[in-house]
Design goal:
The complex is a heterodimer of chains A (133) and B (181).
Chain A (H helix, E strand, L loop, with lengths): L2 H31 L1 H6 L8 H8 L14 H19 L12 H4 L19 H8 L1
Chain B lengths: L6 H24 L11 H9 L1 H43 L5 H33 L6 H42 L1
Helix pairs in contact in B: 2-5, 3-4, 3-5, 4-5
Classes of the chains: A mainly alpha (133), B mainly alpha (181).
Chain lengths: 133, 181
Amino acid sequence: MTRGGKNLILLTVGAIAIATVTTGVSLAVYHNSGDIYLDRSRPGFLPDEAEQSEEQNKDTYKFPESGNLDKQSLTEYLQNIQKEMNRLNKVKNPFDESALSDENLGITGKKVENTESNSDGVDTNQDAQHIND
Amino acid sequence: MTERPTLGYMRRAMNRKFFAAIVLGGMLMLAPLSYNAAAISDEQKAAISENCTSVKTSLKMLQKADSRTRVFLGTSYEHILTNFISPLNIRLAKNNHPETTLSEIQIQFATKRNKFSDTFTQYMKALETLGNTDCTHDPENFYNNLEKTRAQRKELNQLSNDLRDLTIKNIETVNKLKDSL
């Protein structure tokens, strides 16, 4: 192999190595900064197709910014925001601290009677079930 | 006869002193950050070690459930702010009927919504750190991380409740406004 050929191979390998290192560093920074968690939970980056279709079917009412200020317009506002409020109320006490309690995680250190024990200690689906209703 | 210190020798000596100062300073700064082990009982340590696998599984399920909840709530908060609260205030201003209470609600809602996003990020980081902690061999550290995660979750819960309360306050204020027209 000629000297030029060897240099070309070295150049290629070096370029790939540098690209790999810089990509790895970028991903590490992205992960450590916490932005990955924000992106993963942002609408449009939903984990399941079923959830994505649910979002697309959502009512997209917007209160008009211009127009008269009268009882009829405010009644319309209240009716539509109440729908959104009802949607919010589907999630009872979101991020309830009981999900991470010692009892729920099964780390109280106290012996629990088998008749009352729950194999799946964490009630993780409480909020999620209300979302699907 | 003592050797006259050369420039290179002085540079090396200074580098050693500088390096030692950096290390010492770093140790002094990091010392307060060393965690104090939570005072958990031996029974709890044993329970954490024994149930480590099931606890980790539960945490993973919780992580997924919380992500879905965040998406659901985040969408609602965004919808309420951009499609209701903000346009209403704009319309009130255009009709020369600005409402101070509603403007304050908008500011508070936007602030808390942003804080909710930031707090959720911190919470998910804490949850992932917790999930990566070896609870079989280091239950105390695991419990410490669990306490930190609980604090973040409590803050998230508070923010969610605050945002709901602000929405209710907005509805009540608009009701009063409607009655006054």
